[in-house]
Amino acid sequence: MNKKCDAKALITGKDIYKEIIGKAYFYNTNNGVLVVMEVNGLPQAKDKCNGRIFGVHIHEGDSCTGNETDIYANTKTHYNPNRCNHPYHAGDMPPLFESNGYAFMIFLIDRFTIDEITNRTIVIHDMPDDFITQPSGNSGNKIACGIIVNNNYI
């Protein structure tokens, strides 16, 4: 892709997940927003038949800070301006499949615009989203986070 992204996020982990580092790029298209993610340092599965799958969501909060019980508490809940049931939140995204600690994903989504997600957070969870359980898909703890910034202001 030869086009400059319209927004991006640097995604990092803390504490026991400090090895996680990745980027998410967001591109406006005629059919929605194209999202490209690349992440390194993800926890790896010990058994090849049980590879690690991670939930990914855009959250309403604007900070990757938290407290003693939730290091990313200030990311708040999934971005859901239309008050839809899970998995139809605007911030619900496909899962990341790790391969030797690395994951790459690209997808198109029309549930949000770049302006709507700018200054919000993108979060990786330690479990796959089951796309059923309310409100967050039983996707486990937050293990990495990034703030989405508009590329026009970088």
Which helices and strands, and how do they pair?
Layout lengths: L6 E7 L7 E9 L2 E9 L12 E2 L1 E4 L36 E2 L5 E7 L4 H4 L3 E5 L16 E6 L1 E2 L4
Tell me what you see in this structure.
The chain is mainly β and 154 residues long. Helix content is 3%, strand content 34%. It has one helix and ten strands, in the order E-E-E-E-E-E-E-H-E-E-E. The strands form two sheets. Strands 1, 2, 3, 5, 7, 8, 9 and 10 form an eight-stranded antiparallel sheet that branches. It has a two-stranded antiparallel sheet with strand order 4-6. The two termini are 20 Å apart.
Structure characteristics:
154 residues, eight-stranded antiparallel β-sheet, 10 strands, mainly beta, 1 helix
What's this model, at a glance?
With 154 residues, this protein is mainly beta.
